[in-house]
Specification:
Layout (H helix, E strand, L loop, with lengths): L2 H10 L13 H9 L3 E5 L3 H4 L5 E2 L11 E11 L2 E7 L11 E5 L12 E2 L4
Parallel strand pairs: 2-5
Antiparallel strand pairs: 1-3, 1-6, 3-4, 4-5
Length: 121
């Protein structure tokens, strides 16, 4: 394999080829269940940093801009409130063993549905 071959392969693997989806749509639930983790951006405020348990609900988060990347790994409903199960990168000492339950279908709270990507393997 030549360097030119490697460069061509790298160009073929650019993020432009990754499917995008809206996490506010039902299809995203199917993607999480069948494809696996979905990379998303979220708007992190102090309340997010201090999260310990329960469903995170902070209406002061932006619904447009984000400043941190996480993985949506699941979803559910608890006491009638829908949530995304999200894996953070801040170690198992943060949140619920490194995870957070974020409000789902709630006006794109914390910009979680702004940009969502997953790979096709």
């Amino acid at each position: 394999m030549t360097i030119a071959d490697l460069r061509r392969m790298m160009l073929e693997l650019q993020p432009k080829d990754l499917p995008t989806l809206s996490l506010e749509m039902r299809s995203s639930q199917s993607a999480v269940a069948t494809v696996g983790p979905i990379a998303v951006g979220v708007d992190v405020k102090r309340s997010f940093q201090l999260y310990r348990s329960g469903i995170f609900d902070d209406p002061t988060c932006s619904s447009v801009t984000y400043n941190h990347g996480v993985l949506v790994v699941g979803y559910g409903t608890e006491n009638g409130q829908e949530y995304w199960l999200v894996k953070n990168s801040w170690s198992a000492f943060w949140g619920m063993d490194g995870y957070i339950k974020m409000s789902r279908n709630k006006n794109n709270q914390c910009a979680i549905a702004t940009d969502a990507l997953y790979p096709l393997v």
